[in-house]
Specification:
3 helices, about 230 residues, alpha+beta, single chain, about 15% helix, elongated, five-stranded antiparallel sheet
Length: about 230
Amino acid sequence: DRGRPGDTLAGTLHVRGGEPGKTASRAVVELVTRVTRETDDGEYVSDEAFAATEVPGPIPLGAEHAFGFELTLPAHTPVTTLGGHNLVWLRSGLDVPWAVDPSDVDHLDVYPTDAQANAIEAMSDLGFGLYKVDVEARSSWFGRRWVQEFEFRPAARGRRRYDEIEIVFEGQWGDTLDLLIQLDRAARGMGGLLREMSGADESWVRASIDAGTRASAAAGLQRVIG
């Protein structure tokens, strides 16, 4: 299966087996991604559901049923096709009293929207190469417990004043992208080194850009990056 943020997936949930005479109160289909979290003991990953739909019950067990469902990929659905270990899948299960929920997993290939692709390609035009894409835990400042970060590093000499730039796609309205952009400035002298050590060289900014074309995306990003 494949899709892009904003697309609506249509599918069929098949329910088979179970103990005759029992019922499930509902069936659930969830969108899930894998999030990297850092602790004092190191890194670990957790699976996070970020969208769901349900088929209401009661659903009799002991027979085969097929239920249609639709599920829209939110704007912040992680892109999985640009490298890294980014995963998105559909997870389904039954809410069956006094039983372990059976589950099924169906992985998705998530492609960037045209506007997202324009923004990513525009960063190359501005002298930055895509270095890493990952899904990381973040604080509530973002409104969610995790975000997907697109990390760019300078590929042109004139961009060496930045160590890296990270972009988070927060929303899309037509050709307009809502972005969170982190500007990680390179250390310059002792003062710059101290700011880097303290994390003060990093700052997050919110921006909305017209990404209807690669050129308009580059112009919008240039205003933020400088």
